[in-house]
Amino acid sequence: GQQVMQIPQYQHVQEGEDFTTYCNSSTTLSNIQWYKQRPGGHPVFLIQLVKSGEVKKQKRLTFQFGEAKKNSSLHITATQTTDVGTYFCAGPLKFDRGSTLGRLYFGRGTQLTVWP
Amino acid sequence: EAQVTQNPRYLITVTGKKLTVTCSQNMNHEYMSWYRQDPGLGLRQIYYSMNVEVTDKGDVPEGYKVSRKEKRNFPLILESPSPNQTSLYFCASASGGRAYGYTFGSGTRLTVV
């Protein structure tokens, strides 16, 4: 079964509104990574969170890693048309025998559409 | 320029005809991985490698082979392609450090008829 779940699958917002995508794992994660894929493009690494309860910010983007290291969220404040794309979370299971970065489980992504 | 290069970008082939998709990175990364992306299913890992001669299966390894004879190259081999392997494929690499995620190639769109 799917190890990492991500919701919502789609989100349509008007420019200026906020956006949040949520990621949940059935198993503790070693870390959580976030990627953005523009339409027709390839995934681009945004950030990695490692510590329990960690919060990181990149301009209008806020990333959180849950205390139990089983969930994470990405929040975008005041969306812009440049935020359009699909946002993926990914992480290696903590007890997976693979190395930390080797065996990654991706969520199915949240496709964000922003209209002017 | 630091990058992951995969070729070809587009490929149409027939069922059963062996093919190889090449992947090369110039960042001296230890980790390399192959993913396939299908609508509604997100990114699924096919194989990954933690260093030269060290490879392991991901989510969907059936029908694929990989090799890691050199650090920079990680080819994906389809010995006998079938239509259900029609997909968008991405190669990616990452350093062994804790602070960096994967750098992805531009993708290979494969159609098997």
What do these coordinates show?
The complex is a heterodimer of chains A (116) and B (113). Chain A has 116 residues and is an all-beta fold. Chain A is 0% helix and 50% strand. Chain B is built from no helices and eleven strands. In chain B, strands 2, 4, 5, 6, 9, 10 and 11 form a seven-stranded mixed β-sheet that branches. Chain B is globular and about 40 Å long. The chains are: A mainly beta (116), B mainly beta (113). At the A-B interface, strand 5 and strand 10 of A face strand 4, strand 5, strand 9 and strand 10 of B.
Question: How does the SSE layout of this entry go?
Answer:
The complex is a heterodimer of chains A (116) and B (113).
Chain A: E1 4-7, E2 10-14, E3 19-25, E4 32-37, E5 44-49, E6 55-58, E7 61-65, E8 71-76, E9 85-91, E10 105-106, E11 110-115
Chain B: E1 4-7, E2 10-13, E3 19-25, E4 31-38, E5 42-51, E6 54-57, E7 65-66, E8 76-78, E9 87-94, E10 103-104, E11 108-112
Parallel strand pairs in B: 2-11
Antiparallel strand pairs in B: 1-3, 3-8, 4-5, 4-9, 5-6, 7-8, 9-10, 9-11
Number of strands of chain A: 11
Please give the count of helices of chain B: 0
Instruction: Sketch the topology of chain A as an H/E string, one letter per element.
Output: EEEEEEEEEEE
Following the backbone from N to C, one meets helices and strands of chain B in this order, namely: EEEEEEEEEEE
- The overall pLDDT of chain A, averaged over residues, is 92
Instruction: Compute the CA-based radius of gyration of chain A.
Output: 14 Å
Low-confidence stretches of chain B: none
Uncertain parts of chain A: none
